[in-house]
């Protein structure tokens, strides 16, 4: 519940993860056409697809992408390229904005709800659920796909939760 607004938490319809048993976490998720050199966007696409394999999305499904750090691999590549005077490929400009992969997911699965990206300084899971609860309470979406994604030295991870306001 969002205490200050009295909005209840959304109901989790389905959950998916990267990596999960059987995934090659070292090799990373399958490449995603139009995205290069990073696991960030492919992880988002994989967990979204896994969620939608378990439950068919409604047309007015929104996407909330949550990451404290964003696409670290792309950021490091751009930083090193600039520092070394190298040309930066145009796909890095495209994918450096997290909305790019969120929009890709919305387009691929025919979602017509809002797309929101947040980078919270506090608990990312809570921030994602709060954003989803607001979209559901405002009537902007009937469902929301909340994707939490991080790249870290301990391993890249992504979790997707398809949530609703409780009515199925």
UniProtKB/TrEMBL annotation:
InterPro entries: Ketoacyl_synth_N, Thiolase-like
Pfam families recorded: Ketoacyl-synt_2 (PF13723)
Domain Beta-ketoacyl synthase-like N-terminal positions: 38-152
Name of this chain's protein: Beta-ketoacyl synthase-like N-terminal domain-containing protein
Highest classification ranks of the organism: Bacteria, Bacillati, Actinomycetota, Actinomycetes, Propionibacteriales
């Amino acid at each position: 519940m969002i205490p200050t607004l009295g909005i209840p938490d959304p109901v989790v319809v389905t959950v998916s993860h990267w990596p999960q048993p059987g995934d090659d976490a070292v090799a990373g998720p399958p490449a995603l056409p139009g995205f290069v050199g990073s696991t960030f966007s492919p992880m988002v696409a994989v967990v979204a697809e896994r969620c939608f394999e378990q439950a068919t999305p409604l047309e007015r499904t929104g996407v909330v992408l949550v990451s404290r750090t964003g696409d670290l691999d792309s950021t490091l590549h751009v930083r090193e390229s600039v520092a070394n005077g190298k040309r930066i490929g145009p796909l890095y400009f495209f994918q450096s904005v997290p909305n790019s992969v969120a929009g890709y997911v919305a387009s691929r699965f025919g979602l017509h709800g809002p797309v929101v990206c947040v980078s919270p300084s506090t608990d990312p899971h809570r921030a994602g659920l709060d954003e989803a609860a607001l979209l559901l309470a405002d009537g902007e979406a009937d469902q929301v796909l909340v994707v939490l994604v991080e790249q870290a030295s301990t391993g890249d991870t992504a979790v997707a939760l398809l949530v609703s306001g409780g009515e199925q």
